[in-house]
Amino acid sequence: MIHELIVYVKRIKEQGLRIVSEVDPGILDLEYGEFRLIEPVSLNMVASLVTKEIILQGEIRTAYQTVCSRCLEKVSGAIHIQDLILVYENTGQDMIDISPEIRDEVILAFPTKVVCDENCQGLCPGCRVNLNQDSCRCPEKPLNNPFSNL
Ligand SMILES: [Zn+2]
Ligand SMILES: [Zn+2]
User: Fold this and answer.
1) Within 10 Å of residue 125's Cβ, how many Cβ atoms?
2) Is the Cα torsion angle 86, 20, 107, 118 positive or negative in sign?
3) Which residues of the chain fall below pLDDT 50?
4) Same domain assignment for residues 124 and 104
5) For tag attachment on the chain, is the N or C end more exposed, with fewer CB atoms within 10 Å?
C-alpha cells in the first residue's frame, strides 16, 4: 500500500504508463461523521501524454462504512468508479499530485442515502427502539408532559 498519489511525468512513455496501486485511504482524508473508507483505494489507470496534456484514464475501487439512515446500524458497501478521465495541463512539471481529483471523484461516488435493508423499519420516533430487533415500547397514549421521556 502506498501513501501518496503522485504521477511522475517523466515515466510516461509513448505507449503510456500503467498505474496500478493500492493507496492508503487516510491520505484522502475522507471522514464525515459516521462515513469513512475502510479499504485501500485501488487504482487501475493509464497515463498518457497528448500534445499539451497529461491524460489519466481508468478505474478506482474502494469501500465505505457508514450507518443506516433509518436504524443507525453500521453498513458498508463498495465504491467503483469506472471510465474515470482526469486531464492535466502539461507544463513540463516533474510530477502531479492527483489526490485532490481522486478525492473529489470518490466524494461524488458516495451514496447519498444508505439503508441496511430496503425493508429496514428504522427507529421508533417515540421510544427510539430499533424496530428491526424489538417492538415499540411507547405507552399506548402519549403523555401530555413534554419532558416525560427525559
Ligand atoms: Zn437500517
Ligand atoms: Zn416506540
Assistant:
1) 8
2) positive
3) none
4) no
5) C
Determine the pLDDT at residue 150. Answer: 55
Domain-embedded: residue 11: yes
- Dig out the grid coordinates for 129 from the structure: 427502539
Q: Could you tell me if residue 100 is inside a domain?
A: yes
Do residue 53 and residue 90 come from a single domain?
Answer: yes
What is the 110 CA–ligand 1 centroid distance (Å)? 18
CA gap 123, 113 in Å, rounded: 16
Distance from the alpha carbon of residue 45 to the mean position of ligand 1, in angstroms: 35
Joined together, the cell numbers standing for residue 9 give: 511525468
**CA atoms 79, 36, 65, 38: torsion sign:** positive
Q: Are residues 104 and 127 in the same domain?
A: no
Domain count, the chain: 2
1 in a structural domain: no
Note residues around ion ligand 1 (Cβ under 5 angstroms). 68, 70-71, 116, 120
Ligand nearest to the CA of 72: 1
Cα–Cα distances (Å) from 56 to 14, 23, 67, 96, 136, in that order, read 14, 16, 33, 11, 53
Residues 46 and 91 grouped into a single domain: yes
Give the angle subtended at the CA of 87 by the CAs of 49 and 53, to the nearest 5°.
Answer: 35
